Amino acid sequence: ATNVGTSFDGESNYIFTGANYPIGFPITLKYNGASAVVFSKAQLTANGAAVAAFAQPGTGFITRNTYAIAATAPLQPGTAYTITVSGTLDSQPFTRSWSFTTKGTPPPATLTPAPAPTPAPTATPTATAAAQLPPGVAQADAAVIARWQGADYDIWRGAVARTWTWGPDVLAVKQERFDSAPGGTRTVYYFDKSRMEISDPQGDRANPWFITNGLLVREMVAGQLQVDDNAFVPLASPAVPLAGDGTGGNAVTYAALGPVASLKPGENSVPNRAGGTITETIDATGTVTKNPVLANAATYAYYDPALGHNIADVFWRWLAAQPVDWVYGTGHPLTEPYWTLARINGADVWVLVQAFERRVLTYVPGNSSGWQVEAGNVGRHYYQWRYGEALK
User: Fold this and answer.
1) Which of 24, 101, 236, 241 has minimal Cβ neighbours within 10 Å of its Cβ?
2) What does the alpha-carbon distance between residue 362 and residue 185 come to, in Å, rounded to a whole number?
3) Cβ 41 vs Cβ 86: under 8 Å
4) Alpha-carbon distance 31 to 89, whole Å?
5) What does the pLDDT read at residue 61?
6) Nearest CA to 145 among 157, 127, 156, 133?
7) HSE on the CB side for 322, CA within 13 Å?
8) Are 379 and 197 within 8 A, CB to CB?
9) Straight-line distance from the first to the last Cα atom of the chain, in angstroms, rounded to the nearest whole number
10) What is the helix (H) or strand (E) element at residue 347, kind and residue range?
């Protein structure tokens, strides 16, 4: 098949247990005969690389004898995928394999898909290894240690000079309400840039989603604390600047993003602008204007159809270089990239900012090469918003 859709928003969300919508467009294999069919395995690949996916036999009248498969995140546009399903029919093994191509324009050829998140180890670090880690990380769950090491260990030990993915250490550990978790709470580890969540410590540690990365930016922009997969508690969106020192200036705040953010598909979405220059600016009131002087600093590189937003070229390259899949690490863009005047070291500086579901990315052209693009201090901002106090 060609021109296949890229995403699915969960009309039948009971099929895929634990899905965080939108996910990839569903793929099905159905048996219509009288024999006993058992579906045992499905593998989805793109360009020879495995794609993380759900696979679930149907249980309803319409979905009986049907195997439903979907990527855990929306599919890439204009991309060829191969699906292979194996199982047994009256105890005799079978395999079915076929391909399809999604609709839309493929990502830039220079971008190679990042690997899925590294599976968490089952063992805790040795005393010697723990001594070579920041104190907060060393005391964390082994899965947290592995995820942090894969991204930030080389920065911490001084082997590379670039911005943090998570942060130099765990800043706080909390037990927070999550209704579907065992006992109604889950363990969360706060870092400068984000947080890691373990909802079920007895879950499958080989599953890339054993550790989740919260939709913190989406919660703050929406003014809703998430307390379960589809349950929220209202809390006013914070008037905290996304970029800069947090004082002075006229930088956009989380609260100001409401009128331009997409909190559901189709809301505030924009057309594909790939290749165009970025001249739109936004201020602390949420007012959007254009400044042609900024035309040569950055361009739109990739259009993400999940929520209908363009990603800036400087951010797209940064996402491609990360050690985890970009949707897992950052989420889909909630807004367009905007220039905003932020106060940095006492001076107002033009900063390109873009809000994603899990993180905020900033670009300061005048910074050194490893620090031009940074992840905002979303972990700190969220903690202060939720608990009314700043992280030390």
Assistant:
1) 236
2) 32
3) yes
4) 9
5) 59
6) 133
7) 26
8) no
9) 54
10) strand 347-355
